[in-house]
Structures are given as structure tokens and as C-alpha cells.
Amino acid sequence: MTMEKTVNIMVVDDEEIVRESLTGWLEEDGYHVECAEGGKKALELLPRRNWDLMLVDLKMPGMDGIQLMDEVRKTVPDMLVIIMTAFATVDTAVKAMKKGAYDYFVKPFNPDDISLTIRKIVDHRKLVQENLFLRKELMKQYKLRDMISKNEKMLEIFDLARTVARSSSTVLIQGESGTGKELLARAIHDESPRMNAPFISVSCASLTESLLESELFGHEKGAFTGAAVLKRGKLELAQDGTLFLDEIGDISLKLQMDLLRVLEQREFRRVGGSDLISIGSRILAATNRDLKKAIAEGRFRADLFYRLNVISIHIPPLRDRREDIPLLVDHFVEKFRPAMGKEIRGVSERAMRIMVDNDWPGNARELRNVVERAMVVAKGNLITEADVSLPSSGLGANPGAKSLEEIEKEHIRLVLSENHWNIVQSALTLGIDRVTLYNKIKKFGLKREGVAPKE
Amino acid sequence: MGAVDPGILRWLEKEVADTLVAAVREMPSIPVPPSALEAGRNQYSSTKILKELLREVPEDAIKLLGITGADLCIPILTYVFGEAQLGGTAAVVSLARLRQEFYGGTPDRPLFLERVRKETLHELGHTFGLIHCRSGDCVMHLSNTVVDVDAKGRNFCTYCWAVAASNAGGGRVR
Known about the structure:
Distance between the termini of chain B: 29 Å
Number of strands of chain B: 7
Radius of gyration of chain A: 31 Å
Oligomer: heterodimer
Shape of chain A: elongated
Strand content of chain A: 5-15%
Order of helices and strands of chain B: HEEHEEEEEHHH
Largest interface: A-B, 24 and 30 residues
Radius of gyration of chain B: 15 Å
């Protein structure tokens, strides 16, 4: 005899002798059994225990067995129900099974049949629970801090990240927008001995050259007009922690040179200052641009590239690791559930298929937003295909646009934004040359938010 | 209960006394209660029989076992070999389905007696609070058919014996 978790069975029947005898018989098998004489009482008992199985009589005054099953499913969608009936008709049997009854027994039933059925259910549930446990255990291996994947390349990246975390080498993280470059940088920081020191992140693309310079190096009081007080830069604020330079591919050639000097000499001066300040922090950099191409085009310094690229990590786009999509969807659902205030249990098969089939130009970040939105609009506790709203590409994007010119403008704007205003890439996508694209940008007055388009 | 071969009862009395190391006494026969008859099934409700048996428990007895030739059932099951109050006083065993003749075979008295012994100990085991045992060697193993009865062991496993003894309060079962 082995010690196991008690199996809880609820018997619902309006006949007392049936409840009594079935309870007695099931208890001899070691199950915990409770009875209800009707649907109302059964629904009262429902929340009191984690029921493994309900044996429900079909014909009862008031609520019948199938109605009760429907009611129960509203709160416990996966409840196993066996319908019992003395009045066997094919119609009711089919109806019960269609409604999702686990089995259908005609009274009186053979003791061996019911014994085997219940034993099968119990064994099955044990397997499911074991499986859930093992899956959670396995998930731990798929994780690096806030990142999750079971893609082979990604797992190699996780391993590499854990290894490099122990060193102080500069790491260059490359990958499309939304692939999780900053998450990886944070993970490296969190896994490193610097974990208790600051993690400072600078988005190089969002600032103009002079602002970025003062942001990175800080400035002395009165260094330039408006510099009323001394300001410490991010390099200084990072102390012995980690400085993460995001979108490093977007910085000007002048700043590239300054940065190179800093990396080589491990010291810098505040703007307008004369004292040398030494750097204790570790530098991580990231970009969604093809830096080798940028070097070939003279937009990025080769020496800075080699200085940053001591260790190189390239995160593959989501469309190249579709096996991660279901994993990420579950991860996001779990992550957002507490804040949503509703019990979203998962995603319907069709909704998942749609998401797995999508190309996700915005990668995991885009997927995250879509899942979050779906959870907000979901009506039941399952995300269905109706809740999944994927950004429609092309013409559908702006139903308000009427003229050919308006649609052209909208389309160019969309392509540019998808390519992060990479002119070469956008021109390639649009099937026009760069000069034509520049002319159209000028003609339609298109602007990148906050930043002037550059090559 | 009803007409039962006295030879069987005498044999069983000794088997139970020897196995449980307890004093066993045969009581005068009582009829199978007509109120326990299940209309249209030609079977008797074991649950109702148990209720009748409870009125017959002598003051000096801790358990009362009914033996009957009648075929038993409970309302939702086509038949049972017996029924007992789990951790209670009364148990009943039917001889009807333990005979080879029931299944169209030729009488086999040793096999029949062995089955009676197993089902009797099994139902009594329930009155000592035992539930079905996973071990196929234990008489408390679930047996819904005579094939199951024949396959399982004829005694309690060590674990079940210990549980039964502790539930009996160390009094009569040693």
C-alpha cells in the first residue's frame, strides 16, 4: 500500500440509497467521497475541495446532470464528470459526451467497469500533475533571468552570457529590435559579481550628439549655455556596475572616437572639465544595425567595433525560433496575469497557431504587446483568435486613406518605421533606390520621431 | 441468512477464528429481509441487509457477519460479492457468485470455499477500517470478479494487518 494524495469524488444523485451505497462502495476503494442530492448543493460543495471527479445523475428534479455539468465548467473548466442514468437513450448519451462528459454509465453498472474507469482517471491525473511538475522543472533550465527560450542557439547564448558575466570584457549584443538585447544585458549584469552595483542604460539613438555627449560624460558647471550645475554622466553613475549603450550603431563619428578613447584609456573628462575620471564599470553595447556594413559604408569606426566586439552575441529574430513563441506566450500570460485581475488560463489552439505563424517583425517585444492586449480584451479565461490583433501590414493599415498618394505616403511611413528608418533597407523593401526614397520622404514631409532621418 | 449449508458455516467459523485470532460464534439463522429485495432484479440490496443486520448485533460482539445464498447488489451496481460498513460493525457476503455453477462450470468445492474465505476476510477487513490494498498478494485487494478473487492472496498483507490491529484497539485482533 502506498501513501498517495487523497482522491476526492463528488456524488450527485437525488436518490438517497444511490448516494449512500455508491459512497460506501467508493470509500472502500480509499476515495474521499461527498454527496449532494441536487445541483444546488453540488455547486455549494464545489469550491470546498479540489475535486478529482464528479459522478452525476442525469435525471434530477430542478437542474439535470448536463445543466449541472455546464454550471460546474464555468468555474472549473476541466472538471471530469461521469454521467449516470437509469434511462438510457442514445440521444442523451450522445448529448452528454458532446457536452464533454468523461464517460456515461447506465445504471446499474458493472462494478469492474466503474473501478477501472476511476482508476484510469486517477492514474491519468497523477501523470498530468507529474508532467506539470516536470515541465516547470524543465522551464528553469530554459531561463536566463527574464529571458526564456528552448531554441538551441538561444540556450547557447544563455550559457555564454552566464560565462561572460564572470569577466569584465566588453560584450556587443546584436539583433533585431525587440529581440531582448537589453534583457540579455541586464541578465549578464545580474549574473555578474557587479550585480549589486548600478546597471545604467543609455539609448544612444534617442539623443542628439551634444546631448548624448553630456549624457555619457557629464559636464562641469558652466561648460556650455544652460549648464547651470555640475552633472555627472552615465559613465560616472555606473560606478562599479554595468553601463549599457543601446543602439550604439546610431552614434555620430565624433562620439565614436570619444568613446573609443574612453574604452582604451579607461578614463574620461566631463564636458568642459579638466580632471580625468577613471572608469570602474563594465561596458555592454547593443545595436540592431549591421555594423560590418556600416563600417564598409564609412558610418562606423572599425577600431571601435573591434574594441566593443570582444565578445559578440547575436540574438536570432523570433521568426527563426518559432518554437519559442508558445513558450513566450505562456510566459507573458503568467507575467501579466496578476496585474490583469482575471484568470486567463491560456491561449486557444487557433489563437496560438496564428501567433506561431506570424513573422513578428517587432520580435518578442511585439509578441509581448499583442499578448498583453489580448489579455485585456479577452472575455473568457482563454485567449481566442478574436482577441489576437496582429498589426496588419500594407494597405489595411490606414482605412481612412483614400487617394493613391495618401496610401503611398502611409506605406512608406510604415516601411521606414519597420526598418527603424534604415534608408537602405527601406528602399530595398520598397523596391526603389535610395535617392527616390529620399525624395519621397521630402515630398511627403515624413519625419522620424525626434530624430532627423540620416543615412 | 436464509438457507446456508451448515458445513460451510462451521468451516468458515474455524478459518476466521484462526486467521483473526479471535473468538467466533455462529448465530441462529435469520431470513433475508424481504424489504431488501430489489424489484425486478431478483437480487437483494446489500446496503439494506446491513441495516437489518445492525439490529441483530449481540452485546458481546464487536462485529457481525451475515452469510447468504442470495445474490446481492447495490442500486447502481449489477452485483456485489458483499458489503461492509467501513470501520463499522456489520458485513455481509453472498455465496451466489462464488460458485463455479453460477458461470456454467462444474462444482468445485475447494475453490468455492477458498473464495468464501477470501471474501469473508475482505469484508471483515473493511469493518476494521481497511480500504482496498494495492498489493495483489493481500486479501484486501479489490476483486470485482471471481478471476480477481482467485488471483489475489488469501491473507492480509503486513501493512493491512497492522492497520486493522491498531483500529481494533489491540483488543481482540492480535
